[in-house]
Amino acid sequence: MKLVIIGGGESGVGAALLASQMGYSVFLSDGSSLKEKYRSELHEKGIAFEEGQHDMDKILAADQIVKSPGIPEKTAVMKAVRAKGIPVISEVELAYRFKGDSRIVAITGSNGKTTTTSLVYQLCKSAGLDVALVGNIGYSFARQVALKPHALYVVEVSSFQLDDIDQFRPDIAILTNITEDHLDRYEYIFLNYIKSKFRITMNQRPQDFFIYCADDEVTQQYISSFTIQSTQLPISMKREVPNGGFIKDGDMYIRTGNEVMTMSVFDFALKGKHNQYNTMAACVAAATLTIRKDKIRDAVQHFEQLEHRMEFVATVRGVEFINDSKATNINSTWYALESMTKPTVLILGGVDKGNDYSLLLEGVKEKVKAIICLGVDTKKIHEAFEGIVPTLIDTQDAAEAVQLAFRLASKGDAVLLSPACASFDLFKNYEDRGQQFKNAVRDL
User: Fold this and answer.
1) 2-89, what's its fold?
2) Does the structure show a pLDDT above 70 at 26?
3) Cα(118)–Cα(305) distance, rounded to whole angstroms?
4) What pTM value is reported for the model?
5) Cα separations in angstroms, 160 against 67, 140, 195
6) Cα–Cα distance, 395 to 307 (Å, whole number)
7) How far is CA 191 from CA 82, 201, 221, 222, 397, in A?
8) Which CATH superfamily is domain 311-442 in?
9) pLDDT of residue 105
10) Which of 36, 124, 192, 263 is the most buried (most CB within 10 A)?
11) What pLDDT, on the 0 to 100 scale, is given for residue 213?
């Protein structure tokens, strides 16, 4: 069977390694250049590939295509593939087909999925389970299946990966929330994006579990539009639920069967209301995996903060610096502001995905004393916040942004990098942006 992989990043190369191992005839095509480590891996395994171009004759000769999540449907290569009617799957679908008897916890959502995924993994690992963390974090799912299989996979999946699944079926699916994001990939139709997120449940059976936030308005509004066969386990802070998780008077209650587990939210390692939802979702997942209560409590109390996600960097002369570079949409920044307790200098900006900054107005009025715009195009930020905050300054350099913020902050204030935008105008990716921010803070 001829398999062509479009895109040569971690996802594409992982798919190539697995498909080649499983006896497919594999060809990988990337329109730009490959990283050296991926190039040498493909050479080493004798996998045919091209970079800097797409040989359409070879691509259209495929029996099946694996599309990397970063490739939009509107590209010429995908239009040609669709016109010919060649079946297209995602790398997580390929990995699923060869995972054997292993179980899957899959996490999706507009915000909080990386934190929730990491928490679930930590809970499983500390309970001694044979588990791997894959998907949008770390290694691709396919690479892990090919090179080092495990009994359980905790997979972070994006809507783009879910768009091209066919049989992919998680034993436990978590949907953290749904807010407007990536609409440029969904013809600016929010419903298309919502449908994409709910695909995580499409193959689930009654013995599987679906954990979702009952307080998320969009999820609540649309959940009845989908046929969900799995056992639903909602989480809430607004009401008590018979099965799932809820928080009442500062205590979390988790129930997935006959047993009830309780824990004070003041013992959570992760602070902020949004992290209480993430922690609750992870604990419900752990309970369905029959992990012992004491193990769950211990892991939740000692969970380490993720890099680039509300990450404490340093306190310099009484000013606290926080790196939230992974906040690439408005809602992430909204959550970040919500958890701030000090007067804040906010560093905002980058590649705007159609942001509606009015959602931040309340938080900005209440907590932000100055905004530093870090990006090429800052017009919309100025339009939204001119007259709301006394100081608005433009910069195109992380070090300059940090120095300006430090000058504007007083002792007892915080400087928060939470851009609400993608990073590709000035940085390689959000990690690069966060790293440059941290380096600049350390140089103060």
Assistant:
1) Rossmann fold (3.40.50)
2) yes
3) 10
4) 0.78
5) 10, 14, 11
6) 24
7) 22, 16, 11, 9, 37
8) Mur ligase, C-terminal domain (3.90.190.20)
9) 98
10) 124
11) 97
